[in-house]
Every structure is written in C-alpha cells, then in structure tokens.
Amino acid sequence: MATDEQLAAIREKIDAIDKELLVLVNARAQCAQEVAKIKLATAGETVPLFYRPEREAQVLRAIQELNPGPLPDDYVATIFREIMSSCLALEQPLTVAYLGPQGTYTQAAASKHFGQSAIPEARSSIPSVFRQVEDRHCNFGVVPVENSTEGMVGQTLDCFLESPLQIVGEVELPIVHHLLVKQGTDKATITRICGHPQALAQCREWLDIHYPEVPRESAASNGEAARLAAGTQGVAAIAGDLAADTYGLEKLAKSIQDIASNTTRFLILGRESVPASGWDKTSILVSNRNRPGALLSLLKPFEDRGVSLTRIDSRPSKTEKWTYVFFVEFEGHLDDAVIENIMTELAEHSIMLKPLGSYPRAPI
After folding, report:
1. Domain ranges of the chain
2. Which of 244, 255, 241 is nearest to 181 (CA)?
3. How far, CA to CA in Å, does 205 sit from each of 65, 142, 198, 222, 269?
4. Model confidence over 256-295: pLDDT tens digits?
C-alpha cells in the first residue's frame, strides 16, 4: 500500500536524522570534556567553576530565539537543558541539595533546573539545605521561596539573614496537586489527609467540598505526606506526579488545587556570585528604622532611576521589636552602574543592607 510505503520512507528519514543527532550530541560532549581539561590545567590551586549559570541561561535563550518550530520554545529548551546536563556531568557531576524526602516539588524544580544528570540529595528541612551548601557537602541547593496563591516562604527568607550563600538562579514550577492513596484504597476508608501546610491551603475549597469531615494533618513536605500515605492505611496525601511515581500511589482525584494557575518559585543556592547574563534579577535584604516614610525612603531610589521591582516582602528582624527586614527583588545586576548607585544610596539610609545575589531570570 502507498501509505505503508510513505510511512517506511519517513521512518527511514527519522533513523538517518537520529544517527546524525547522535554524532552531533557526542561531538558536543567531547567539547565539554576539552573545556574541563583546559579549566583544570589553568586553575592552579583553586577549584575551577564548571557550572556557569549565566552561560547556561544565555545558551537556552539563544536556542529559543533560533527555534524555527514546530516544537514550542520551552520544549526545545528542555531538550537542550538535558543535553547540557549530561555534558556537564562529564566535566563535573553536580550534587544538589533539596527539600526532601523524594517526590517533593522541590526535587522536581531541581530536576527542571539542573537536568537529570545532577545528583540530588534530599534534606529534611530548608535550613539543612542551606547548611549542606555552606559546608560544601553539595555544590548547590534548591529551596522554595514563594507561591502564587499562598505568598512567601518565611523560613527561606529567615535563613538568608544568617547565611553567606548567594542566589544563583530561579525556577518556576506549575503546581498540580493530586489526592494520593495506596493502590486499591476506597475513598470511604480515608481517615486523614496529609500535606504540606501550603498544599493544604491551596486545596482548601476542594477539601471542604469533598472531604469536609476528614481531619487534615500538616507534614514537613508533600513528599513526606506521600511517604506516609504509602506506608499507612487510611492516609491520603496531597502531592504531585513525582510523588505518585516515587511511592507507587494511586491518584484518587487529580488537579485538586483551587486555582489552576498555581505556581511556586524556587531559588538556587550557591557559594559564588554570578556574572551578568544580559537578563537578570537581583535580590537584597534591607532594613530601616520604624518611622513614618521608612519604606518609601527604601523604594524611592528605584523609582528615581526607573528600576522595576519584581517582589517586596517583609519579615520581623528578630533583633529589635517592631523592626522589619524587607526582601526586595528587582530587575538588573549588581554590576550595572545604575544598580551600584542604588545600592550606595540604600546603604547610606538603611540600618542593614545585604545583597543576596544577582542571577539570570528563569529561561524556561
């Protein structure tokens, strides 16, 4: 039949393209190995930097700009992220600490940012993720910082007050919650529903309608809730696809979040500052005396120079009553002349100013 002949011809063409792709991907990998040799030969006693967030962001943006289709830009960027992850592993395998256990959204964010070739290490709390990177047990860390419906993660901001770590990247991850149970569990046998406090809040209306009488119990993470559901009869967990796959759980109900556009942003923690990539954000902590117009005086330098703020939030300073520390994010890089001027002015009028780092805006 003509159709069979047409399909055979297309498949033959696909096989030829695959062979060409294989050659090109391995040629790229060989280039990565040559880069590693050069860095090691010229590093001396210092430890060379193999992972360059700004370079990776530039490559992914360029790929999306060059993409002719039909694959969407994000799909193409994801493919290249994995190629870059595999090539980087030939230079230096990266270890990445994340808020565990296995199956959390933070693990999914780490995978999205670093690719499958990075070595993930689950930690039991956000402070322990910070410590893993500070103590050089891991190259990088991933922590949640804000959710589009529930706001900022206070513990992450509090850790930055004491930590010397830099923010070196960001990840945005759509959050899709499911009600997960052990295989074969009847909904009538559910005696409690577990989840991270933010996950429970993000599904509050759905739970009120479908399980109004079932107690809800907070867990340290959604992965922990899934692990508990996998080992305890009558426990349901609110968690995502990764948790369902990791613990072999059944989806009793899918996409139960109250707001469809629910998204969480995660920050990448590192020890080194990141050069400008051409499209960057900067985060700082800044504090002023509690007096009329204090917040306005902190924001005015940005307005005067036309710099857009992307986030502002406050936390108690914990050192002086009724004094607050503001977490401020804005467009630009600390090395930009206009940003340097703003930092100088803020330092003159604040009681505390701590730059947390400049980093590429999430490319995908």
Report:
1. 178-261, 273-360
2. 244
3. 41, 29, 13, 18, 34
4. 999 988 899 999 999 999 999 999 999 999 988 777 777 8
* Across 19-33, 65-79, 135-149, 310-324, least confident range: 310-324
Written as one string, the DSSP assignment of 286-345 is: EE--SSTTHHHHHHHHHHHTTPPEEEEEEEE-SSSTT-EEEEEEEES-TTSHHHHHHHHH
Single pTM value for the model = 0.90
Architecture of domain 273-360: 2-Layer Sandwich (3.30)
d(CA 77, CA 120): 21
CA distance 159 to 45: 31
Strands (E), 106-247: 119-123, 140-147, 151-152, 166-174, 178-181, 192-195, 216-218, 235-239
Per-residue pLDDT averaged across 60-80, rounded?
95
Two structure tokens written together for 181? 């149970």
CB 159 within 8 A of CB 127: yes
Query: What is the per-residue pLDDT for 193?
Result: 97
3-class secondary structure, 357: strand
Record the tokens describing residue 11, joined without a space: 């498949």
Give kind and range of the element (H or E) at residue 86: helix 73-91
Q: Residue 241: name the closest of 228, 224, 223, 258 by CA.
A: 223
Distance CA(65)–CA(63), nearest Å, equals 5
Structure tokens at 343: 């930092």
Percent of the chain at pLDDT above 70?
98
CATH architecture of 178-261: 3-Layer(aba) Sandwich (3.40)
